[in-house]
Request: fold
Amino acid sequence: MPRKLEVNVNNKEFIINALKDNKRLDGRSLLEARRLELEYGEGLGSVTVKLGESKVMCSVSCTVTSPLPERPYEGQMSISSELSAMAMAHYESGLRGNTAEEEATLNRQLDKAIRRSGMVDREALCIVGGEKVWSIALTLHYMADDGNLVDAGVTACTAALLHFRKPEATVVGGEVTYHPLDERTPVPLAINHTPISFTFAFLDTQDTQDTQGGGDIAVLDPNAIEAQLSDACFMVTTTPQKELLTLNKQGGKVLSVERVLECVGYATERAHTLAKQIHDSVNADLDRRRIGGIV
Amino acid sequence: MHVFPGDSIDVPSTSSAVAGIHTTRTTGAISTRAGVLSSGGGDGGRNDIDMDTDRKKTRPHIHVAEQRRYLACTHDSVIGQVIFRGADGYRVDVGSASTANLDALAFEGATKRNKPNLKVGSLVYARISLAHRDMETELECLNPATGKAEGYGELKGGLLADNLNINLCKSLLEKNSSLMNSLMNAFNFPFELATGVNGKVWIGAPSPSQVIAVYRTILRADREGVHVLTEDWFAELDE
Reply:
């Protein structure tokens, strides 16, 4: 099992000095995200998101369960993901060590951004009040990790939920009939909004010899090395309508109010473009399937 | 010839171990990897990557198309990262299954009084003096025959490209490497490369943007192949 190495001193110094010149190793500017690509699997609701070299697959499935007694008219939703050695050799499965911690953080962030933000109207998942509701399960697989799995994960969940269709269920006199996909057009989920997340990493430039640069530098969509070198990560999830869904800050560094507002401002500006890209891509794939006669 | 693990292969018996070929008295030579068996001798083809020394030229080996996990092999030049500093040496990560030992005296001109001072996290260019499956890998930063550094030692400044295809790194060391040629044709500034056959290449150049240009080109060649390094790519780099 390979250990996760600290970033070597040469690269650390080089990267920080280059950032002071507004340069990043992959040629991006500081507030530029990597290229986002979406690929669709065979079934509906199966999406693979590539963010640079990071790769996350999300698939959605649904089952019928009985609702929680305290919420008889609401469907259920769960997100599960596991970091395995498939993404990066130093991840180990099981409930120990740093991997479990990272995994928990990642799951929590996704849960906040997708489930608790109310992306899917859960009352629309009700079939028979108090008896039968849809339970939507999102399963994520991290296939390659080059940093910023959170943004890739949120994008994958968002796209998968937009892409997903559940079978139609009709209720006649308390009797429920589920129509298979080839019998009736499956129905999309009731989507309230499209969460788009942006992760900024803050790198301290003071610990190198040159102190005049001072302070910290924020980079959007950090890759693995940048994330490893950063002192804090700040994640903003918004909708294209400029509603803030979640803010999440990790790491010990203190961020000023101005810094937070800058990030939030940037995210709300950019969310529209990204949401459009996701919607267009999902719609294009759905259109393609209709021509193929699957849906 | 394509071989799979467990295939009997017909190679002249070699005294030294070759990665991918396992020889016992009862079974003869057996391949332990999937790949293309090259009989050695050097056909000059693209697949023949172990061309850097005459010794290797005559050795049969199994060529695996894409390998990023390094297996330590004696006489390889590698780049390692110091992960521990002990009283009389360093422990170095070269990216293989076990760490390697670098004796503090295995440097040019090093004596008990005058030892090099490497910090944890710094990079060294070294050659593997001992690789054995039951022993810790040993490194040295000098040619034991001459006692000279011959380019080995600490790598200062610059940038390390990591986790590269090992075949690409080996091809960089060839006399007529296509990647090296396109790098030299495209860039009109001086740059240095230290190539470790453990999938690491250290890049040094006068300015950071030049280092980044070389770094991105090597990374692109690694991901997509040398053929994508067209004029368009270098024009894009200039922007």
